[in-house]
Structure formats: structure tokens, C-alpha cells
Specification:
Layout lengths: L14 H17 L7 E5 L5 H6 L5 E6 L2 H14 L4 E5 L12 E7 L8 H11 E12 L19 H10 L3 E14 L5 E12 L1
Parallel strand pairs: 1-2, 1-4, 2-3, 4-5
Antiparallel strand pairs: 5-7, 6-7
Amino acid sequence: MNSFDSKAQQWDSNPIHWQRSEAIAAVIKQKLNIQHDFTALEYGAGTGILSFMLKDCFKELYLMDSSREMIKVIEQKVEASQATNIFPLFWNLETEKYTQNTFDIVFNQMVLHHVPDIDAILSQFYLLINKNGYLAIADLYPEDGSFHGEGFDGHLGFDPEQLRIKIANAGFKNIEYQQCFVINKKTETLETKPYPVFLITASK
């Protein structure tokens, strides 16, 4: 079972997930020249909070996730909202290339720190993006490990300048980043700490 399967039904009840997505959506719309005939892919879409906030910007929006339960929640939302341009996609890009479509924009939030091989996933993103298309990634600045707590084996955030170099090495250009949100989260020691989030954008 995917570790996020057990979190799917409660995911939308956390107000931070909504506040963070609102902030990221605002910066994406501000930074990227989105056209209404664009197709987009959200990788690691979760329950689709961010994509539903952006759905009116795109002709088609594909929500990819490797958690079956997260995809089920998206399917329920699509049915409830009668959204005609949102397509849930159960897929793990880390283990299998996706070749059915390419996209004008690939975006994700709080996903990259869960991905072991950053260079490999950036190369996958590059292949999925159309010429002159965009990449947008939101993730944590470096943190001390307290964000996820004991047992987390992913990345403890990223130095955006180091990530910028990796994105450039994958072939992207016009790379910019800025802080877009601060998550105030209670840690395992019951201390509330601020965890700033950046958005980094690039073009192909």
C-alpha cells in the first residue's frame, strides 16, 4: 500500500493544505504565461486541491498520483463538481515512463522531497513538457528533519539554488524562485515551527 493511501480521506480536512495551495496557485498564475488552450499535468496531485484551484486556467488538466486512494478522492470530486477538463491518472512516474501525452505545464507541490532520485524525475518532467512549456515546483527550504519527524527517509527540504542547478542540468532555462508560503506546523515535540516553502519555475 502507498503510504498516502491511509491519509486520503482526511487530507482535505487540514486547512493548511488549502492555504498552501491557494498561495502556490496565486504565484503560478502570476509567474507563468498560461494560455486557455494549455494542457497541464500535476504530478503527485494528492486529492487535487491545487489543480481544482487552477482548473479554469487550462483546457485539460491531468492529475497523476501513485496513491490509489488519492485518485479515488479526485474521481469523487470530478463527479461532484461535474468538471469536464480534469482527468485523474493513477501512475508512478518513478517506476514507469508516461508516453501517452505531453503537456504545456508540469507542476507539483510538496512532492519532490519524497522522490529519491531528483535528477531522474526532472528528466522525466523535461520529456513530458512541450517546447516553450513550463515547469513549476513548490517545496520546502532546508529543514532540520522535524517537519516529518522520526523515520522519514526523504529529502529534508532543498536549497533552491542547488535545485536550480539540477533543473538547468535537465535542460530547462529561465529558472526563477521565490518564497511563496510558510507552513506553521506542530512537531513531534509539540513545538510549533515555521517551515517556509518556495516555488521554482522554469521553461523548456
